[in-house]
Amino acid sequence: MSADVWPVERAQAWQRERGWRVGCNFTPSSAASPLEMWQADTHDPTTIERELGYAASLGFTSVRVFLHDLLWTHERHGFLARLEAFLAAAARQRIGVLFVLFDGVWDPHPRPGPQPEPLPGVHNSRWVQSPGAAILGDPARHDELRPYVQGLLEQFRDDARIDGWDLFNEPDNPNPAYSAQEILDKEKRAVELLRKAFAWAREVAPSQPTTAGVWRGSWSDPAALSEIDQLSLENSDVVSFHHYGELPALERRVAALRRYGRPLLCTEFLARGIGSGFDPHLGFMADEQVGAYCWGLVAGRTQTLYPWDSWAKPYSAEPDPWHHEILRSDGTPYDPAEVAYIRSRTG
Fold it and tell me: Which residue, 150, 173, 167, is CA-closest to 231?
């Protein structure tokens, strides 16, 4: 079975059925990366269940969750069982799931097995790319990833607990923290892999929408789009994007993306130190029915309460303000007023 990009009418019907998607990028506080979250030895269903409850208490209706191709390669059956358990736990909280299959950010040399401890005071110090540079940088190996993409989509193609499939997170990110280890032609190779990922997904034709988010630029001029942005926007059933910045820039980006006539999902926001917060950003997205996923929920091993600049100078104390995250490990809010505002907008 194969299909093309959804008609606009089908995408709009998906939004009417699902309602406003609001939530977070979810990694349990006990995991520093998708590998730690999902591998058998470090999978922590107790923490996952508890923290999904925290998400529900904020009124969140969806979580964006990163996967990894190495999990399919090395732990396929256990991985699928853990995905099923996660979906069941999310469903108990009436939370949908937006799964992310590939990721172009942070360590380009992922390895299965025990993961190194987080670097003190450093943002996302043990997060890993999927696929790693060895596969991304070799077009002859890209097809090795087809069973992962199609196997997952075939397994869950009609699962109503899944909101959608985000095929590739920031695929062309230049990744300054790891610039010396990145492949030189990353953007070119990322375009090639993303094009294949869309084609593989179309062959399965899942009942859920597929997307790949645009993340830099204004997107106001169609003629000025990069190749990867054009590929993403023309092939996404629902349009997704990232925005870390002040409200006027968010308003302009939403206005620019409206031309596609499709539901919009802001799949990453919240960087308090540079003007990206909940008030007024979440209120604007609620009013505009733009899906809104902040980065992070509970401060933990990802250490994303620290800003990006911690890669240049690690922090020795808790930053003020926190960069990402909403809650401390015991579920109490970083900022009670902020949590009250979130609840006022999620109902």
Answer: 167
Which one-letter amino acid corresponds to residue 105?
A: V
**N-term to C-term CA, the chain:** 40
DSSP class per residue in 307-321: -GGGGTS--SS--SS
d(CA 179, CA 230): 25
* Percentage helix, strand, coil for the chain under 3-state DSSP, each rounded to 5: 45, 15, 40
Tens of pLDDT along 20-59?
999 999 999 999 999 999 999 999 999 999 999 999 999 9
- Tell me the chain's radius of gyration from C-alpha atoms: 19
Residues whose CB falls within 8 Å of the CB of residue 222, separated by 6 or more in sequence, listed in order: 230, 259
Q: Is the pTM of this model over 0.90?
A: yes
Q: Sorting pLDDT into bands at 50, 70 and 90, what band is 1?
A: very low
Q: How far apart are CA 281 and CA 338, in angstroms?
A: 12
d(CA 12, CA 257): 14
Structure-block tokens of residue 230: 């054009």
Cis peptide before 131 (omega within 30 of 0): yes
Structure tokens at 178: 């790891």
Please state the φ and ψ torsions of residue 101, each to the nearest 5 degrees: -90, -45
AA identity, residue 293: Y
**How far apart are alpha carbons 48 and 329 in whole angstroms?**
12
Q: How far lies 30's CA from each of 23, 26, 93, 256, in Å?
A: 19, 11, 20, 38
| Number of C-beta neighbours around residue 228 at 10 A | 22
